[in-house]
């Protein structure tokens, strides 16, 4: 079955689905202007995510309770990630049914960015752990609404033969966002309040080019069908038995993201407490810069290369193994040169992985009528590691032997992700 066939999803309706441009299989290549808008949205969202995660939440935690900084960071990020587990598929499903004249995805990109911006500004004034948790959860709620919508726009508008290249550019945007967050962390010199403001401004401005050139056909009201709460909720379950390729693709993405998150979640503290870096925030910027350069190089090369070859799995397997290697380097060489090498290797692996695995995932979606919901379910494999990884990291560092155990665990989990890719049968 083609991934863009339009059968009725579980609990859904086929009413009107075959006649609307919003649900048609994309055949025309997207323009450079549209891709630029997509990339910039990814920049803003990831700056809003990773500036706080990598630097500002940790700095804020130190001002509240320095001895308990690891526990505060783990609590705040885990609660936010728990919200994203629900928000991403929920807003993806809601965007599938949106009949606004501005399109299905664009209203959610705008509304999500506005909410996340407001929550980042409020978080900058939070002087208690409870307020940090509350406002970070709202950041995750808004940013995931925007991310679910912009992610679903790719299978909506980009033909299969262009998806590796577009996926590579989207990965570049994600990486530029992470780097932007690290730059904010370095330039504010420990003033996390200003850092949150910079992230908020970057997010709000980033969505404007896409909104002005959105190429987002409206869904006719009769194509959405009648809303049935029971069917809507049942639609979030995608049977692994009926759609095994989707299930294996989800599992491999989850494992690779857990390995990646374990490698970076305590990076600020690793530089501060193990390596003894004199300016940990600047060290995070250097490592993130190396990582970002390698991600962008491999993403923009591997994505189009996989398009030309018509193959995805060899790239995903190789990049997953490379990500695991980065964890091993950090485990056995806990010095500044080892951190530099680990960042470079992690970037090489993750860049290729982001570009090609994204293209692979869009080819195993069960239904054209529910691309937003299905991509939202896939995106849970990005969000759930943000819950799992901080908990595993806290156990490894506090009770499991320290940072070597943490990085070796990351390496093993990443290798499992490489192994399970071979189970996917419908994509080469």
UniProtKB/TrEMBL annotation:
Residues 1-10 have a biased composition (Pro residues). Residues 1-20 are annotated as: Disordered. It is a multi-pass membrane protein. PANTHER family: MAJOR FACILITATOR SUPERFAMILY (MFS) PROFILE DOMAIN-CONTAINING PROTEIN (PTHR23528:SF1), PTHR23528. This is MFS transporter. Pfam families: MFS_1. Residues 245-428 form the Major facilitator superfamily (MFS) profile domain. It is found in: Cell membrane. It comes from Arthrobacter sedimenti. The chain crosses the membrane at residues 71-94, 106-125, 166-188, 194-212, 246-269, 281-303, 315-333, 339-365, 377-397, 403-422. Keywords: Membrane, Transmembrane, Transmembrane helix.
């Amino acid at each position: 079955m083609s991934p863009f066939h339009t059968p009725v999803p579980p609990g859904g309706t086929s009413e009107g689905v075959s006649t609307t441009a919003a649900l048609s299989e994309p055949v025309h290549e997207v323009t450079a202007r549209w891709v630029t808008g997509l990339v910039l949205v990814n920049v803003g969202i990831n700056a809003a995510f990773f500036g706080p995660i990598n630097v500002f939440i940790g700095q804020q935690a130190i001002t509240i309770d320095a001895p308990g900084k690891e526990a505060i960071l783990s609590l705040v990020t885990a609660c936010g990630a728990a919200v994203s587990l629900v928000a991403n598929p929920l807003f993806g499903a809601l965007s599938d049914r949106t009949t606004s004249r501005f399109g299905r995805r664009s209203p959610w990109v705008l509304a999500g960015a506005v909410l996340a911006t407001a929550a980042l500004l409020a978080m900058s004034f939070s002087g208690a752990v409870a307020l940090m948790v509350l406002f970070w959860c709202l950041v995750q709620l808004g940013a995931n609404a925007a991310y679910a919508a912009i992610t679903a726009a790719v299978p909506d508008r980009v033909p299969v033969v262009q998806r590796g290249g577009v996926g590579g550019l989207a990965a570049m945007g994600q990486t530029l966002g992470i780097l932007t967050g690290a730059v904010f962390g370095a330039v504010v010199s420990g003033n996390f309040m200003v850092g949150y403001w910079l992230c908020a401004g970057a997010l709000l401005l980033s969505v404007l080019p896409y909104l002005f050139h959105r190429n987002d056909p409206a869904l006719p009201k009769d194509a959405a069908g009648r809303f049935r709460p029971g069917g809507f909720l049942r639609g979030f379950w995608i049977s692994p038995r009926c759609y095994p390729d989707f299930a294996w693709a989800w599992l491999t993405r989850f494992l690779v993201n857990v390995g990646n998150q374990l490698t970076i979640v305590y990076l600020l503290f690793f530089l501060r407490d193990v390596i003894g870096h004199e300016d940990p925030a600047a060290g995070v910027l250097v490592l993130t810069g190396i990582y970002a350069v390698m991600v962008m190089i491999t993403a923009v090369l591997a994505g189009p290369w996989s398009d030309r070859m018509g193959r995805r799995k060899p790239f995903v397997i190789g990049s997953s193994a490379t990500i695991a290697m980065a964890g091993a380097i950090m485990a056995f060489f806990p010095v500044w040169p080892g951190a530099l090498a680990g960042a470079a290797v992690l970037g090489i692996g993750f860049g290729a992985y982001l570009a090609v695995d994204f293209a692979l995932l869009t080819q195993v979606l069960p239904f054209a009528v529910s691309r937003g919901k299905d991509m939202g379910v896939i995106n849970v494999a990005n969000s759930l590691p943000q819950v799992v990884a901080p908990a595993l990291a806290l156990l490894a560092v506090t009770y499991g032997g320290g940072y070597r155990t943490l990085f070796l665990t990351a390496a093993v989990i990443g290798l499992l992700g490489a192994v399970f890719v071979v189970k996917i049968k419908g994509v080469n």
